[in-house]
User: Fold this.
Amino acid sequence: MPKAPGSVGSGTGGATVLKRNQVQDFFSFTPKTLKPCFRPAISAEGANCDARRPCSTCVRSHKHARDHAQPGANLPERPECTFDEVATTETPSAPSDSPKNRFERLETRIKELEALLNQKEQATSPGANPPSSLPPSSIQNSPASIQSVPPNSRPGSASTMSFPSDLESLLSPSNLDVNAQAVHPYFWNDNSHVIESESIRNDTPLLSSSTDVIWSHWPANLPHPELIRHLVDMFFLFHPHASRLFHRGTFIASLSYPPDHPDFPIAPVLHAICAVSAIYTAAGGPRTNAADFLYEGQFAQPDLPDTFAEQQATHAKETVEKYLNKGQHLVQCVQTYVLLTWYYWSCGRWVELFTCSGQSLRVAIPLGLNICPPFRSLHGSSPTMSIIPSPRTPIEDETRRNTFWLAYAVDRQHGSGTGWALSLDDDDIAQVFPVTMEQFELGIPVNYNVRQWCHVREAVLYHPPDITDSFTLYIKSTMLLSFIKNFNNRYKIKSNLGDTRFLPVRNFTAQGYGDQPDIRLSPAFLELDQLLVSFRSSFPSNLKDPFRNGLVDTHLYTTFLTAHVTRILLHEPHANIDRANCTSAAKILESARAILELIYAVWSTNYDIGLLDYFCPFCWYLAGQCFGRFLRAAQDAACIQQIDTLRAELDFVRMALSKMAERVPLSYRYHRMLDACIPEVCGPVVVHSSPADGRPVSTVTNQQLLASVSQTSTNQPDMAYFLKINNLDPQP
Assistant:
């Protein structure tokens, strides 16, 4: 019989390892080879091997072969039986490199890893001290608890996603020394083959597993590839703008390339995604407590814990500068800065937000992301407006455009809460609006002849259905913020220069400020006011409800909020709530209550409001400020019914900010800012119990409130009150 090859089973230690088809002689402890002739039920009669020399099975097989041999076949006279013979060329303990044995070794190491994790969990349980062999960074970055949701769940249905427990040890960058084979016995070489290291250091961290499989040239300080993939999945699943900043299919596919592949994402992008995604999963370790952030308008931040997200944001800032200095992957550098602005915005860190937001737009200018052909400079020495090659595909073209618009949106949104100038003037932008999500995902090219240009003012009010979705309206709403911001910041300069659009008709009684011009009668103000009214009524029929089909459209919800916030930002400086006929006071109260209605609507769903756009807490905070102003006026007028209504409305705004603050520290900061502002304006805030649905009942209309608070007001407005309101706003 032909001799079958053997293989080694899994096992450790010094015990004798038996080869396949080999049995142990329990009397002499001598291994005996069990050849095919010894296998049970091998003959036609079902007889087993009788261990004779030659055995009966071999005799029958030999006889059958001779009886049915072809003419001229050379067969031996006697059967060749190999029972009880051990080949001298084989070593029973010699390991085999077959795939099955490699899998067995990996399974063994996985079991060892699980045992180590169990020891670690017991050691780090409450009341127990961590073992001294654990590195501090590994203990700090290990997730304490993980919540899981079904894989097919949609954003907002749960707060976190499940994460493999065997990757907890990969959170610490100290365990990711991919250049040292001694730390990681298994790694990927350039040919994508698993290689086993010959030596393993004795001082390997306890949570470092020999089953870590990573590229040998994996970028320094990046988490393990499996953790990267998990955080990327969380990023695309939960962040409202992820699928616009990157083309999801292309980005996910690029992660499968080697790190040195030209299409593999650069390290700053992955670092920044890790920082942004840390609030969506427990895999990134403990998050920074929102209470660690100051709210008194101070720019200096306290010494925050060195969390996983903070480490990744720091690495992103450091590495992106290297790519900028070399002029490499510049579009991805802009995307990195956009990601960093989201991270710093979510943390309420105004200075870093302002600098990163400005940097993203400044870098976008030489790349030509703010303009589109045929618009270019007349300067003859600049034949091209972009220093990078033209996009190769429609997807790449739209990705660049989306990147610019997202950088633009952040600059306009966070700039609405400050008195600082914007980073890029609207007059320097000549770009078309984004395409729909379906067109972007499928890479459908859209001709420029049918697209809308942002520098055409009428485009804000006209929405072609074939190229308009909620994200298009979202970008248009940020342009309205820019218009209001520029008007408020530049009014005095323009009027001083004699610009007739900013010269109001003098009206000494309209606002009651004495010999002061009524800015609301200037042509520029009237044009903006009408533009805001027209924008709210111009939405297409399919984009009039952000809660359509039981789902929350984050872009459309933020657009609705922005439409009301722009009205408040335009009229709030001119609102005199001591006068019942003040149209600006009526409009800001109406807008504040419209924002409150949107809070009620999203609160009534099961959507996790921590997944909303970061501009939402500012909108809620602004509405709460308006309620605080009217509450102060109602207290001065001793209007008991109005006081109760306004307090209930204000409390609900505070409740929404507090709920969102469970995930987003920015919301906590706005909550504290509102708490600091309201007591000085209207006295201590009393928390009212809400009805079963969480929605207080309003018993006072806007007209009744304005009429009540104006009954006891004097002819002279309280200028100190308006100054106090502005000073109490701890804007960054």
User: Anything to note?
Assistant: The CA atoms of residues 185 and 210 lie 5 Å apart. The mean pLDDT is 75.
